[in-house]
Write a structure and sequence with these properties.
Elements: H1 2-19, E1 23-26, E2 34-35, H2 36-51, H3 56-70, H4 100-103, H5 106-117, H6 128-136, H7 148-158, E3 166-169, H8 179-190, E4 195-198, E5 201-205, H9 208-220, H10 222-225, E6 227-232, E7 235-238, E8 245-247, E9 254-259
Helix pairs in contact: 2-3, 2-5, 2-9, 3-6, 3-7
Length: 265
């Protein structure tokens, strides 16, 4: 009977896992959730803005643009209007955005977009769709407006302006995580930050807005990096809880990112 009960419990948990739709949501997004790969790309685009010292408004414009142009995916093809368009922003090598390899590099593509954006006088006071159009010169100039709510919500959360503003619903990791891999991805996105490790936990020294930007970057990348929990500023996100950010005891001035052990065989 005990063995039967254990089998039933395991089977129930396995079925529950398969029923989880892996998505990420941001406070104020109006139900416009992102798939996990879209959220990871959104976190990178926003991190580049944060690293450059740009306001969350710049990230909002970039996210709305990328959603319209590529559905926030790093696609390797264009369309009839721009057959050489590539990447997160569908930038065209023939129009001076860089080589094909460069526009397919999300870091280059994001920086190239912001390089063009900051040249627009008063871009922060423009409607998102107008600023996006001045960068992209699209044949459909009003199309960016439909993504403004999503873009503002995710940019605010991922830049750290909205604490506990990002949540992702995920299944259990199927591979072990690596704190060194998290560190490499984090520093590539947000720059050098003081880090150390404690077993399977990466400890980042940060506070305030920076801490929340790092923490919510980690949540957005939890699927790919097998992250199981993120702790910051008296709150914790746990991959298994399904309850979003909850109160927790967290040392001041730290972001703690824990990765999964190897799954049981």
């Amino acid at each position: 009977m005990v063995a039967g009960a254990i089998y039933t419990a395991v089977a129930f948990l396995q079925r529950s896992e398969t029923l989880i739709t892996e998505r990420c949501t941001a406070v104020g997004s109006g139900g416009d959730d992102l798939a996990t790969d879209q959220a990871a790309n959104a976190s990178l685009i926003t991190a580049v803005a944060v690293r450059r010292g740009l306001p969350a408004r710049a990230a909002s414009i970039a996210l709305a643009t990328s959603m319209q142009e590529s559905k926030l995916r790093n696609i390797g093809h264009g369309d009839q209007a721009g057959p050489d368009s590539r990447g997160l922003f569908q930038q065209r090598p023939s129009q001076g955005w860089g080589t094909t390899a460069q526009v397919m590099d999300p870091y280059h593509a994001s920086n190239a977009f912001y390089d063009a954006l900051v040249e627009i006088s008063g871009y922060q006071s423009l409607d998102i769709t107008d600023a996006a159009q001045q960068v992209q010169h699209s044949a459909y100039p009003g199309a960016y407006a439909q993504h403004e709510g999503m873009a503002r919500a995710f940019a605010s959360a991922l830049s750290g302006q909205t604490p506990a503003g990002l949540d992702c619903s995920l299944r259990s990791p199927d591979t072990a995580g690596d704190p060194a891999a998290v560190t490499a991805k984090l520093t590539a996105a947000l720059g050098d930050v003081p880090t150390s490790t404690d077993g399977r936990t990466l400890i980042v020294e940060a506070d305030g807005t920076q801490a929340w930007a790092i923490a919510q970057w980690a949540v957005a990348n939890a699927k790919a990096l097998s992250i199981t929990s993120v702790e910051v500023d008296g709150r914790a996100w746990n991959r298994q809880s399904r309850d979003g950010w909850q109160p927790a005891q967290v040392p001041a001035g730290q972001v703690r990112v824990t990765v999964a052990d190897a799954p049981a065989s």
